[in-house]
Amino acid sequence: MKKFTLIELLVVIAIIGMLASILMPSLSKARLKAFQTVCLSNQRQVGTAAISYIVDNKEYAPTDSASADASGLQRWYDRLIPGYLPEGRKVVDGPSDVQHCPSGKTELQEWDSTISMNSHINGDVWGDQPPVTKATAAETMLVMDSHETFRSAWTVGFTLFKLAEKTLESRIARHLDKAVVTYLDGHGTSHHYNYLLTKSVGADKFWDPEL
């Protein structure tokens, strides 16, 4: 049996190293793409549950308030449990397993969802909650990727803060510079942060279903 010389072994090791350096970016990109697919699937389930809630509650979305209501619920995503979404396995993972992006990060239990709902719909920031109209359903954002410190998406603040942070876990556009969005008609897609920034200023149907 022929034995490899030290030089031959070093050449083989160098070739393997070169191949690994070529393949790693592609593998990393494929991994992020897979996470984006899972996130989109999760969001569609949340979007479908929220739409069902809206239909059952006279066109009103699940609210998100600063304090708990008579039922003891505070967050919009809690109101979807258990009638519209299954309960999660662990409290730290949020009320339902699908209410998370696999690339997202949850640090605090009180912010236990990495998906946010449009505040123009659930009335979080804008005071009185309006009924949801369906005239612009295909253009109005229902839920969207978020950072752990946001439970509701509100126009300027949401899209400008942490949309394109350098740290992947701290940014909203964490899927190859895109954020997953599910619309009021139930369809989901991903948008580059540059596109979302154009939606952050002024009145736009993306945010306000009444327009």
What does this protein look like?
This protein is of the alpha+beta class. The protein has one domain. The chain has 4 helices and 5 strands, in the order H-E-H-E-E-H-E-E-H. The chain has a 5-stranded mixed β-sheet. The longest helix has 51 residues, at 6-56. The radius of gyration is 21 Å and the shape is elongated.
Which SSEs are present, and which pair or pack?
Elements lengths: L5 H51 L58 E4 H4 L18 E5 L6 E2 L1 H6 L17 E6 L4 E5 H6 L13
Parallel strand pairs: 1-3
Antiparallel strand pairs: 1-2, 2-4, 4-5
Biggest beta sheet summary:
5 strands, mixed
> Which bin fits the share of residues in helices?
25-40%
Oligomerization state: single chain
Report the structural category: alpha+beta
Query: What sort of overall outline do the alpha carbons produce when their principal axes are compared?
Result: elongated
Radius of gyration: 21 Å
Q: Note the beta-strand portion.
A: 5-15%
Distance between the termini: 79 Å
> What would the average pLDDT be, to the nearest integer?
77
How many structural units, i.e. domains? 1
